[in-house]
Amino acid sequence: MDAMTHKATMSAADPVTFYGTEVASRLLLGTAQYPSPAILAEAIRASGTEIVTVSLRRESGAAKAGQSFWQLIRDLGVKVLPNTAGCRTVKEAVTTAEMARELFGTPWVKLEVIGEDDTLQPDVFGLVEAARILSRDGFQVFPYTTEDLVVAEKLVSAGCEVLMPWGAPIGSGRGLNNPYGLRSMRAHFPGIPLVVDAGVGLPSHAAAAMELGYDAVLLNTAVAKAGDPVRMARAFAAAIAAGREAVIADPMEVRDMAAPSTPVMGRALLGS
Amino acid sequence: MTSTQTESTEKTTPWQGANAMRVRIVGAGVAGLTCAHAFAARGAQVTVIERKSGSGQGCSWYAGGMLAPWCERESAEPIIAELGHESLAYWRASVPDVPNEGSLVLAPPRDLPDLKRFSRRTEAFEWVDGARIGALEPDLDGRFDQGLFFPTEAHLEPRKALAALTRLLVEEYQVAFRFAADGCSEVDDQCSEANNPSREVDDQGSDAKVADFVVDCRGLAARDTLTDLRGVKGEMLVLYSTEISLKRPVRLLHPRIPVYIVPRGDGHFMIGATSIENDERGRVTGRSMLELLGAAYALHPAFGEAEIVEIGADVRPAFPDNLPRLRKRGNTLYINGLYRHGFLAAPALARRAAEVAFDGAYFPEVMDEDHRQW
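ok -> structure tokens follow
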């Protein structure tokens, strides 16, 4: 089997499933901050992404006045994951989610309840509460959370079938701040799709997340604010595919050569 | 610098003397007025129709008035800078009070990466340190360690500039203005009559040609015809303070909330502007004001004590690529999609529109028909 055929087989046989919906691309893209909707559309096409997040809170206005932008996004033929970005209270998040369901006709919602205005760190208490309310109401919730295992456990019991821990604060581009925490989250929730959401700055960060065994990566700023967003979208798609291939390929273990396991013998002495 | 090619196949008419070109311009914002100027300067008889009661009262009213082609390179395509340089020269020559003080781009210490990114994507600036910032803007002395200074840029007060331009058009070029009293329905009829927009039915019921060319400069209202236009809301406010003075526009970078402050003279400062993907006019949110005021306060605490003189919002017309377009359908020209670049792009587009009408010129950089509907 040549390399190309192998790759095609690989990706065709390796979808990720969110709430029963299979998608082939493991890159989820946010739609904010691009230089223009035209560049956004091109970046989405270049990335091969099948799911885009759309923030409702600000663009909606009083009379759902964001229609023309949302129509541009609908026209791209990708699945929309409405986002409660910018919501600071449970009530706001729930109201925004309800509006999103009506507007986009989807039970999916990326749930953000922001607890800190500067770092945009999630308010995990409000998050769990909102997730419980929304799940009970038939929503399929994608919660933006931290790597805290107890919070994750509570989100799962609230009805979440996907978890989205941060890599680093939103828009910081710092990569995976706590790889150990992310690894233990993977180990604790082997059966739940895990998505690293936020903080990813470089394709190598995304590849690292995939190598930890994460199912997908969600990012926005790293592509939107790149000098050439379309090219950067392509770079992320390649990195995520590479990281996924690597984890399936079962990488070698790191070996500590500084601690010899056998006596050093039979070796010529050099430089004496 | 701009490629122009005249379509040799198109027969051009000598629009001279009694055969002066009659042009009807719909919309008296920055696009309509600069267009009136460009046509009138070439000898056309120009009538401007506007549904509001005066000129410049659409989204031009809320513009920042920064003439900053270099700074705009940070997020806009090269064509914006190209049009911007031409427009900058136009404003300097056409209206009074265009301070050539350049512009200043600053960032708080934590957001220096944004300053570096800004510098990578622009040119014609110098890095300035704290001392130099203090020399340029004494009231900012000691507040910032690093910045970018764009010495060749300028700014203007949009409302005064458009009022001056209107006077110039009336007094020097005998341009006729028909404001609200003439009714907006006429404006709408004029343009919805897509097949024959230069004709209207006169009192006797006969079909009379009233203009050789119609130029539609209606902004977002032209969405009835240009269906891929969308609105991008912008909110602004005007502060009054005698405790601080600035000579030039200052941009304060922030990863999520970039803000600019433009001195308007007499202690007035315009703070702008949000950029929100919706087409809702008028409504201003608390969050937006928090962001704008927060940024102003970060620039200088004196803004915390400033008086809020005005809060405003309007909707910028934009095409999907956020680039302006000049279109021609028969004898109707359309100038639209100026987005955040009204003052920066309008004069250059107006000049091209006149050349399209008079000379049969074609400007691929703004006339390529690459949108869905075309």
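Chain B has a mean pLDDT of 86.
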